[in-house]
Amino acid sequence: MRLTAAALCIGLATCATAQETKIVGIGAATCARFNAQVAEAPASERDYLAWAQGFMSGALMRAPPGVDEGLDLLPPTLPLPDQAAFLRSFCREHPEQDYMDAVRALYHRLRGAAL
């Protein structure tokens, strides 16, 4: 068990030092694609939002000790509908950026809300 945990830690440390990360899944789409898909099929926004929650949870789990500890990804001051509105607004204003950039901006907003 300890050997497996040590191997996992080494693997994560190696990944953290990589210069380039390939993001996969629905969140790898551009904001322009997100805008078009949600306009065509509004229910698809749930898929994007689920990806965003998973992405932010993964970022929180990989954060080094002392960074973002106790960060609430679903605070009462920014409930899920407001987070979805934030992502829609970001992508409407920045169609040339990636949806992941919108999620990163949301994560930073949540960090600011925790202060």
UniProtKB/TrEMBL annotation:
Q: Where is the signal peptide?
A: 1-18
Note whether Signal occurs among the keywords.
yes
On the tree of life, the source organism's domain of life is Bacteria
Q: What is the name attached to this protein's record?
A: Rap1a immunity protein domain-containing protein
Q: Which UniProt keywords apply?
A: Signal
Native organism: Methylobacterium dankookense
